[in-house]
Design a protein that fits this description.
It contains 4 helices and 7 strands, in the order E-H-H-E-E-E-H-E-H-E-E. By secondary structure, it is of the alpha+beta class. The protein has a single domain, classed as Gcn5-related N-acetyltransferase (GNAT) (Aminopeptidase, 3-Layer(aba) Sandwich). A 7-stranded mixed beta sheet has the order 1-2-3-4-5-7-6, sandwiched between helices. Helix 1 (10-27) packs across helix 2 (42-51). The mean pLDDT is 95.
Length: 174
């Protein structure tokens, strides 16, 4: 089940963030450009919850296995991209910080989250869905094209004020 998060979900969302970063540290594989204690954190989750855009994926027993921020906020770097789907900002939905607990990888849960985002954005009357991912995020850079997203371009980004990164941006007509 995927639903809007509640305040009761915040510890579990933050635990997923930490589990991802711990898995990367232990495995030596880095798919995110995130840093523990900087991004994402409990404060990140609280801010998204307060904005009303935090969604969680849960098991039937309520265990949180993933989360995402689904809003219309396009980062300034999005303005550098030559989008092929013309849409005013009011018609664009954006996925940010999509997470799946590392113990759940390989179960198509990220696909479920993206499809939920598409359905939710359509229900909101949006005509395009956009997102970005770090160039080193191999799973995400394979997932989005497999789900019909068009690679729109790459751009340099000073991520959260602590690291320079190259982001790959994707779009899909809804």
């Amino acid at each position: 089940m995927i639903r809007l998060a509640t305040a009761a979900d915040l510890p579990a969302v933050a635990a997923v963030y930490d589990a991802i970063l711990d898995w990367e540290a232990e495995s030596g594989v880095c798919y995110t450009n995130w840093q523990k204690g900087k991004y994402p954190t409990m404060d990140t989750a609280k801010g998204i919850l307060e904005a009303g855009t935090l969604y969680v994926g849960t098991d039937a027993d309520g265990t949180v296995w993933g989360s995402m921020n689904l809003n219309g906020l396009q980062l300034p770097e999005y303005g550098k991209i030559n989008w092929s789907i013309p849409a005013p900002d009011s018609q664009v939905a954006v996925i940010h910080t999509l997470t799946i607990h590392p113990d759940r990888k390989g179960r198509c849960l990220a696909r479920q989250m993206v499809r939920f985002a598409e359905d939710t954005a359509r229900a909101m009357g949006k005509t395009a869905l956009r997102l970005d991912t770090w160039e080193g995020n191999v799973p995400a850079n394979h997932l989005y094209p497999a789900l019909g997203y068009r690679f729109a371009g790459s751009t340099d980004f000073f991520f959260m004020g602590y690291t320079h990164s190259v982001l790959n941006l994707y779009e899909k007509q809804l």
